[in-house]
């Protein structure tokens, strides 16, 4: 579709879900679903929908409140960005997992691909860096290149005890203090944390840092539309009101109790039924560089929410579809071979952009060369979407389950829809799997061992477990 397609209203910008290729009539009876199967399971999905709305009424679905309850927060975020953007050259996010992936996804989707490299595309906003790991080489490489006197750090941790984030903070604080003096440290840090508890709120008050708060009923992987993701967005010129407006638009769709009018509800059920048919891997494959990091964000959302050892009754179930990220057309030349001819264990979700922000024609040349001359006169937008359609058809011919989320154009409004759509779909899937989609006990166990090994008070038993664990045999280290 042309990049010049005219978009007139919010309804023109509605993302849509095309599920034709999950059905037997397209991919065969052995691996495809039937409408009859969906209709037979529809009541389970509708009950899941009721459960979600009831949980929301009880204050347990914080992500559903975000599009509506942050007007004052948004004003404060915008005012902060307006005040600070000219004072700092660099804005650095210190966070990991849900405190980083959404920030990266927003930046990649909305801002220029070379935003950090060229002053003219930043329009007066600071460069953005998201430091989401504790690899010493990566941390040192970044901090050595930044002027601490011209750098603002956003420390994101609900508890203030996240080892990775707080270790980064301790190093950044040392460097800033050496550059500007202890008395000025607080001016170079913003704390995004829990309002009423945790170490970071105490540090922020002690240092005089600006503070933003993460709602207690919103977990990290659902937090992109809180100050966790909205502050870095505002600091790089993203329209955060439009992001929330897109989420609100999708929320209204997700509240519909008519099964076939609620794509997030349908898709939650489809993924559950696909899992029951052995499609235990969920591939997200955007055909858009701007949306590639949405796939990364989705990986955490899907894996951490649905990979659970026990169900709500405490019975051992060990369930959870494995999310995989891919990028079209790039991964047609790497992963697609596996998807076409490997195990029948995947459902593939394409993200297709219908109208790109740029039109770029392929020049005509070498008309005498049959394997090259045919490209001239077409556009790159045509090429990437044709490659998606060709991959889709090839998967169908090989009886592989796939679907497409159609994105009219990539902007703040459609990105807000995407975030909310997949969050609601995840809540639906959690209900259908009968697990708690909002905790992460496996992650907590790993954290607790780290605390114990490092000597944190209260975690001595974890240190003992580590010290008493079986030693690795030298003959098995090859």
Automatic annotation (TrEMBL):
Keyword Cytoplasm (UniProt): yes
GO cellular component: cytosol
PROSITE patterns on file: P_GLUCOSE_ISOMERASE_1 (PS00765), P_GLUCOSE_ISOMERASE_2 (PS00174), P_GLUCOSE_ISOMERASE_3 (PS51463)
Alphabetized InterPro entries for the sequence: G6P_Isomerase (IPR001672), Phosphoglucose_isomerase_CS (IPR018189), SIS_dom_sf (IPR046348), SIS_PGI_1 (IPR035476), SIS_PGI_2 (IPR035482)
UniProt-annotated location(s): Cytoplasm
Catalytic activity: alpha-D-glucose 6-phosphate = beta-D-fructose 6-phosphate
Pathway(s) it belongs to: Carbohydrate degradation; glycolysis; D-glyceraldehyde 3-phosphate and glycerone phosphate from D-glucose: step 2/4; Carbohydrate biosynthesis; gluconeogenesis
GO biological process: gluconeogenesis; glucose 6-phosphate metabolic process; glycolytic process
GO molecular function ontology, one term from the record: glucose-6-phosphate isomerase activity
Keyword tags: Cytoplasm, Gluconeogenesis, Glycolysis, Isomerase
Chain ranges passing through the membrane: none
Keyword flag Cytoplasm: yes
EC number: 5.3.1.9
Known role: Catalyzes the reversible isomerization of glucose-6-phosphate to fructose-6-phosphate.
Protein name as it appears in the record: Glucose-6-phosphate isomerase
């Amino acid at each position: 579709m042309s990049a010049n397609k005219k978009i007139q209203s919010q309804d023109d910008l509605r993302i849509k879900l095309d599920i034709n290729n999950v059905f037997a009539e397209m991919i065969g009876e052995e691996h495809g679903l039937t409408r009859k199967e969906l209709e037979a399971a529809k009541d389970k999905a509708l009950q899941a929908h009721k459960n979600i709305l009831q949980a929301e009424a009880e204050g347990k679905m914080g992500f559903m409140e975000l599009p509506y309850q942050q007007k004052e927060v948004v004003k404060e975020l915008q005012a902060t960005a307006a005040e600070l953007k000219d004072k700092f050259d660099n804005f650095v996010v210190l966070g990991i997992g849900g405190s980083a992936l959404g920030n990266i996804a927003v930046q990649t989707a909305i801002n220029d691909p070379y935003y950090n490299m060229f002053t003219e595309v930043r329009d007066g906003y600071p460069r953005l860096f998201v430091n989401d790991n504790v690899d010493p080489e990566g941390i040192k490489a970044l901090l050595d290149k930044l002027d601490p006197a011209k750098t603002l750090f956003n420390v994101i941790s609900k508890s203030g005890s996240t080892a990775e984030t707080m270790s980064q903070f301790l190093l950044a604080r040392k460097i800033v203090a050496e550059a500007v003096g202890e008395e000025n440290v607080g001016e170079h840090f913003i704390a995004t944390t829990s309002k009423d508890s945790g170490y970071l709120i105490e540090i922020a008050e002690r240092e005089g840092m600006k503070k933003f708060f993460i709602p207690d009923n919103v977990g990290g992987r659902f937090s992109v539309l809180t100050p966790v993701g909205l502050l870095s967005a505002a600091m790089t010129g993203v329209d955060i009101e439009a992001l929330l407006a897109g989420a609100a638009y999708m929320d209204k769709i997700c509240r519909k109790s008519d099964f076939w009018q609620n794509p997030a509800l349908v898709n939650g059920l489809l993924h559950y039924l696909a899992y029951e048919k052995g499609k235990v891997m969920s591939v997200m494959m955007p055909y858009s560089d701007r949306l590639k990091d949405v796939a990364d964000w989705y990986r955490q959302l899907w894996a951490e929410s649905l990979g659970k050892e026990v169900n709500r009754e405490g019975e051992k179930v060990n369930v959870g579809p494995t999310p995989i990220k891919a990028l079209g057309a790039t991964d047609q030349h790497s992963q697609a071979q596996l998807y076409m001819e490997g195990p029948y264990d995947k459902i593939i979700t394409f993200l297709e952009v219908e109208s790109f922000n740029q039109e770029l024609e392929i020049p005509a040349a070498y008309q005498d060369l049959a394997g090259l001359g045919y490209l001239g006169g077409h556009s790159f937008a045509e090429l990437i979407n044709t490659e998606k359609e060709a991959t889709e058809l090839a998967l169908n011919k090989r009886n592989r389950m796939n679907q497409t989320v159609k994105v009219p154009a990539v902007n703040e409004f459609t990105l807000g829809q995407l975030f909310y759509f997949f969050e609601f779909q995840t809540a639906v899937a959690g209900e259908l799997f009968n697990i708690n989609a909002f905790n992460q006990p496996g992650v907590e166990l790993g954290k607790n061992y780290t605390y114990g090994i490092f000597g944190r008070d209260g975690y001595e038993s974890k240190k003992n477990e580590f010290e008493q664990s079986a030693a690795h045999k030298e003959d098995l280290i090859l």
